[in-house]
């Protein structure tokens, strides 16, 4: 137990560690090679992860809804420039409050190269609601299992390998407050951005056959018309749900541009 | 081209709507259920939970106490009192230091420098006695309390106490027709109303957000705490026996702060039944786990993030105010300064309100920053009543070392206990400072609501002061 806690700290100061390739650029986000979005439930420490990666000191607070608009920051890793967007915390991407729209529109229309979902390790089940929705929209995602120190303190253990297998995307355990796991996180983000890791994201199961058929039907029709669209299944779900914004985006071409 | 693009999408949309008929209108619920059962399935495979854990119980016990019906409010009042006390007591010393540095060391240096390079008297007066004095005063008075208040507030926030406050106040706000999260923006306003107005962004519903913006001014801000404390010390502290004077003045200040909370609820209630009618929106407030705050990091970020930014804005607005004060005291028309004319004109209204012309003029001049109200009052009193032996000349803002000297000047200017009480009330109930007004406009993008937020508190202030003055004169 003690050893486990000590090991990463020693590694993180080692020159061979991936952190040695990480350069925090603060607000300098010009000419980025990759755009990375940070999504997640409120109060999972997204802003802390953001600060740990960019070296910025955006104020973080222990209450839901701290980040009201999105913040941007930059970093370089392995000679690539990454632009990081800290999205407002949301529980879901299905309803229409302002902060959820900011988050959803960015993942959908901003087409980030990688979407990192920050989750609270001690409240995984509730956090999965958002994670599963994000995985429907984008293929290239990383789950950052944050607040691991707290989860451990509360006697919660998580089988990260099974979780990664179930979700079909890499899972990185972090405690951003004390900088643990951040080096591993940027390494994985880089690998996903450069396609060294291929994601096979989880698709929502547990649907009745009638619903499943309708989604597949509509999705096939969409893909026939727009073969480039990466998330036809999700668009189909939104259309079946009667989402006005997605309908408009389809009509005026912003979705398929 | 346009037509070609439209055709396939229209096809897809009409196909989607035909499928919607087939699937039924509970698609949203079915999808949500599917997501939840997927999540439950994954969780059961990967999470091993130990509910008998100790720290879990500690969190629950803390929550039971901090949000209990019986102790919740008492604890809130105590926490507020301790923070205020630490801010008031702790700010004295650094304020004095900054005062010595900026006003007693740098100011004479600048004066002799300007004399040696032969600056004309009006330029010297305008720049040094006007602009520099105002800026130096704002820094000396405003920086120390902000540097203490904001970090303490941020520590509470990091610990996770604020959502519990919101939880406690939620029921009251709901009864007033407002949003429970307004508790958070209200307490931000105790630091700075401009910051409180920006914080209302956490409220989704535009109606409830407007209520939170308009009522934020009733949270006594940093610029007004010093005024309250000084006047309470001089007038309230003086009517009780010496040994109780300190506690009496702190209680008076806390009473004013709670009166502000009362007006927040009252105005929210009034607005939600008149101009801003509508349903109270429900929201789920997650009570986050308690986290031990990281002391130094918090102090650093709250200094950079809040204190410096708010201070900078105050300085930007204080500089022109200093210039105006100097100008109206030094431009004479027909043998009298503009300041003297204005004071005589405003005196008739002032006396009706239990205030006086000097105070009203000071509030007009000090719109940019509340913290320059008291120095402006003193300066105008000294020059208008021709009190000799104090001050540095017409239109120069200054601070007196002891509350005693200030008291003598104010009493020479005709002040009574009523004037003191009404100044405290008016300091709570008047227009927001121009920084806040500007912020309200930027956040609402509406002249109408900016005007309402500006005028409404003045109306309250005038009515309350008038009533208090009339009753006072009847009874005393």
List strands and helices in order, with pairings:
The complex is a heterodimer of chains A (257) and B (476).
Chain A: H1 2-12, E1 22-26, E2 34-40, H2 46-54, E3 71-77, E4 80-86, H3 98-109, E5 114-120, H4 124-137, E6 141-146, H5 148-153, E7 156-158, H6 160-167, E8 171-173, H7 182-193, H8 209-225, H9 232-240, H10 244-251
Parallel strand pairs in A: 2-4, 2-5, 5-6, 6-8
Antiparallel strand pairs in A: 1-3, 3-4
Helix pairs in contact in A: 8-9
Chain B: H1 2-23, H2 27-46, E1 47-49, H3 54-66, H4 72-116, H5 121-159, H6 162-175, H7 182-189, H8 193-199, H9 206-215, H10 225-236, H11 245-272, H12 295-330, E2 332-333, E3 336-337, H13 338-352, H14 357-365, H15 373-385, H16 403-412, H17 417-428, H18 434-444, H19 447-475
Antiparallel strand pairs in B: 2-3
Helix pairs in contact in B: 4-5, 5-12, 7-8, 8-18, 9-11, 9-19, 10-11, 10-16, 10-17, 13-14, 14-15, 15-16, 17-19, 18-19
Can you give keywords for this protein?
heterodimer; A: 257 residues; alpha/beta; seven-stranded mixed β-sheet; 10 helices; 8 strands; disordered N terminus; B: 476 residues; mainly alpha; two-stranded antiparallel sheet; 19 helices
Cα-atom radius of gyration of chain B = 27 Å
Helix/strand class of chain B: mainly alpha
* Average pLDDT for all residues of chain B: 82
Order of helices and strands of chain A: HEEHEEHEHEHEHEHHHH
What overall form of chain B do the CA principal axes indicate? elongated
**CA-based gyration radius of chain A:** 18 Å
Number of strands of chain B: 3
Give the overall shape of chain A, derived from the CA principal axes. globular
Runs of chain B in which pLDDT lies below 50 for 5 or more consecutive residues are none
Side-by-side strand order of the widest sheet of chain A:
1-3-4-2-5-6-8
Q: Oligomeric status of the shown chains?
A: heterodimer
Order of helices and strands of chain B: HHEHHHHHHHHHHEEHHHHHHH
